[in-house]
Structures are given as C-alpha cells and as structure tokens.
C-alpha cells in the first residue's frame, strides 16, 4: 500500500486581530481542512518576538507552508520570516482592514479562505522596505500613522473603531512638511499623509493607489493634501470607487525607491502598526521576494 505523505501546515493565529472571538479558530480550521492531505499545527500569538521565533522554528522543523491568521500586521510578521527561505505563506483574513488579502482576491470567509490554502496556486509578490523594515501592503507617514498609533491602543476594533478615531483627529490635524527625492526630482510639500503602496488597498476595501500592483516592481507614492471637512464624503466615495486619482488633493507617482525626510521622528505606519524609524526614510521595493498562496 502506497502511503501519501501529508503536507504540513503551520497556522499562526493572532487572537487579538480584528473583531470577534479568535480563540475558537483552531478547532474551526481543523474541521475545515482535509486531514487526508494536510497535517495542521497551530500557534496562538503572544507577541512580536514570539511569532518570529515560532516561524523560524517551524521552518527549521520542515514546515514549508506558514499561514497568517489575522490582519496585515500578522501577515507582516509571518512574511518577515518566510521571505527568502523557500517556504510559502498563506493568508486567512481575520483582521480589521485585511488590505493585502483583499488585493490578492483572498476571500474573507473562513471556509473559502481555507479552500484557497488547500487548492490555490503560489504567486511571487513584491515586498517593500522602510529603513530595512519590511512591509507587504503599505507604509506611510502623517495622518494614517497617527490613526494607527491611536488604533493600536484602542479596545474598539473594526471599521467603525477606525472611523471614530479618524473623525476625532482630523479637524485639528495639521499638515506636516516633507521632502521627497524620487525619480531624480526633489519635492518639498505639506501633506496630510504620504503613502508608499505595494498594493492598491488602504484596507476596508478603500483604494489609495488604484494602479498599484504587488508584482510590478514599483512603489506607488501617494501624496494626499488635506481637503476641507465638507469634501471628505466625496473623497471617501472616490476611495471606495477606485477613482481617488481624480481628486485635486492627491498626487501619485511610481518608482522602485524613494527617500523621504521629515522635520521630526514621527510614527511610520507599517502595515497598520505605528513604528518610529527616524527622520530620514529610505523606501524601496524588493521584486518577487515573497511566495504567497492565492486563488
């Protein structure tokens, strides 16, 4: 009798991601995965160092597929270890914005996302670096980084928690001064935010860079200037419809790298997590550096 060796899957579960109860996910996942084809293992996150160590150890133990169960922050942590190892990453969206999963067409429903894990194909995608710190979906400075900082400390998760923080901060948020060096140009500007997009997704199915693609070897650099409060509904509608580039408040350019200088060491939004990386940011793209399971 021929014995078929089962593929080993390591699920990295963030119980604090998004909304709802994540602690029962392991039993749900196990019931939905074909046990004749796959051997499933699980780890519930307890911290950043914890997940990186678990991912490294899993790869050393022979796991070739690691699945991030969470939002873009969890995906970022798993990708930072998987990248360049020959292993591949799967995504089960369980966060708030789920930007990269939406861009890749990975279903938000658990059962359908697991179908992709079991039957999907492997696709090479780009990753970005900010001062050597990896991002998979987007990075940015300004207003969105300020929201990310508040959101990280908030007990209210999901879209409405994010929206509440944004509307609270916006009226008194002042544009900051930035200097960019991109495509041989020096740009000095004041902006509400500057986003370095690998995908087109800002999260929550909103689009900040409609032409961004995760396999084009380019960053989409989005400079958004602060519109009046009365213009926000129109701007939000453009983001949802993928027509944000029509707005007179935004400028988008593409480049494989960019240097940004700020007056102060402010938070940088790295896939939804606020991180201080200095006043000078060197941002670049790493083409085809990550293997991801997609539909």
Word description of this protein:
- The chain folds into 2 domains: 7-119, Probable inorganic polyphosphate/atp-NAD kinase, domain 1 (Rossmann fold, 3-Layer(aba) Sandwich), CATH 3.40.50.10330; 133-289, Tumour Suppressor Smad4 (Sandwich), CATH 2.60.200.40.
- The chain has helices at residues 25-32, 48-60, 72-82, 99-104, 110-119, 143-153, 158-169, 232-241; strands at 7-13, 38-44, 65-70, 88-93, 121-130, 133-135, 138-142, 176-182, 185-191, 193-197, 201-203, 206-207, 219-224, 250-255, 257-262, 267-270, 273-276, 280-294.
- The chain contains 8 helices and 18 strands.
- A hairpin with a 2-residue loop joins strand 16 (267-270) and strand 17.
Write the element-wise H/E pattern from the N-terminal end onward.
EHEHEHEHHEEEHHEEEEEEHEEEEE
Number of domains: 2
Radius of gyration: 19 Å
Could you give a short account of the major beta sheet?
6 strands, antiparallel
Write the CATH fold name of the largest domain.
Tumour Suppressor Smad4
Number of strands: 18
What top-tier CATH class of the largest domain fits best? Mainly Beta
Arithmetic mean pLDDT: 89
Principal-axis shape:
globular
**Percent of residues in beta strands:** 35-45%
**Do you know the CATH architecture of the largest domain?**
Sandwich
Task: Characterize the quaternary organization of these chains.
Answer: single chain
Number of H/I helices: 8
The CA-CA distance between the termini, in Å, is: 33 Å
The percent range for helix content is 25-40%
- The computed structural class is alpha+beta
Spatial order of the strands forming the largest sheet:
6-5-18-15-8-9
